[in-house]
């Protein structure tokens, strides 16, 4: 497979991966541009190859490349580094601060309260199939409004890390409970919304700096 094809596929995958999980509207727009640009350029080149003579093909190719570079420069000029950073969050800050409500628009405060009731009291995050659309439906608002509340109000950039923060906190409580000392860690992880043990292990170590088994031993040893 030509190296250019690999690069193009990687660029498209970078744009697609995490699109639904992304809470930043500007970054979602950048993802769309990142996917659309190579597809457009490839389409232009393919059409030109079969419909334009060789002399004019050069002009078409140069125009397509010029357009592509112009769009990339536009993205770099209008989107900051944070927006163009497509990797997932590494911070699982699940506890909203007391000042979070100050970042919520008046029109969103009722929805914000319903969201926090679902999260903190009903613990809806324990559902491993919980999606952005399902949570928005439970709150009773459109998805885009929920993204704004979680991003601008609670400071999260990705939906999955928003949920993972609460799930990890709940797992830590279970691992600290002597009555659950014999419950397998995998069972605890699955009961707390994680559908993949590998994902749980990675996020738990990212949050605590140690494996779940080591965390349990240290906590129970100090009781």
From TrEMBL:
PROSITE patterns with a match to the protein in the record: HTH_ARAC_FAMILY_1 (PS00041), HTH_ARAC_FAMILY_2 (PS01124)
InterPro entries membership: Homeodomain-like_sf, HTH_AraC, HTH_AraC-typ_CS
Gene Ontology terms, MF aspect: DNA-binding transcription factor activity; sequence-specific DNA binding
Keywords: DNA-binding, Membrane, Transcription, Transcription regulation, Transmembrane, Transmembrane helix
A Pfam family hit: HTH_18
Annotated ranges, domain HTH araC/xylS-type: 113-218
Gene3D superfamilies: Homeodomain-like (1.10.10.60)
Domain of life: Bacteria
Ranges that cross the membrane: 32-52, 58-77
Listed PANTHER family: ARAC-FAMILY TRANSCRIPTIONAL REGULATOR
Official protein name in the record: HTH araC/xylS-type domain-containing protein
Natural source organism: Agaribacter marinus
């Amino acid at each position: 497979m030509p190296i250019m094809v690999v690069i193009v596929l990687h660029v498209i995958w970078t744009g697609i991966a995490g699109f639904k999980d992304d809470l930043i509207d500007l970054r979602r727009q950048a993802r769309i541009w990142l996917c659309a640009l190579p597809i457009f350029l490839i389409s232009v080149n393919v059409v030109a190859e079969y419909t334009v003579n060789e002399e004019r093909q050069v002009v078409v190719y140069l125009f397509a490349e010029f357009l592509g570079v112009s769009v990339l420069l536009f993205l770099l000029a209008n989107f900051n580094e944070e927006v163009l950073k497509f990797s997932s969050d590494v911070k699982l800050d699940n506890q909203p601060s007391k000042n979070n409500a100050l970042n919520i628009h008046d029109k969103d405060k009722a929805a914000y309260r319903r969201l926090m009731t679902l999260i903190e009291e009903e613990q809806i995050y324990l559902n491993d199939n919980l999606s952005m659309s399902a949570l928005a439906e439970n709150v009773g608002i459109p998805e885009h409004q929920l993204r704004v509340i979680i991003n601008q109000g609670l400071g999260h950039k990705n939906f999955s890390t928003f949920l993972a923060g609460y799930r990890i906190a709940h797992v830590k409580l279970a691992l600290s409970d002597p009555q659950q000392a014999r419950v397998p860690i995998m069972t605890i992880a699955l009961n707390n919304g994680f559908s993949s043990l590998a994902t749980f292990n990675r996020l738990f170590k990212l949050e605590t700096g140690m494996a779940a088994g080591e965390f349990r031993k240290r906590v129970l040893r100090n009781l």
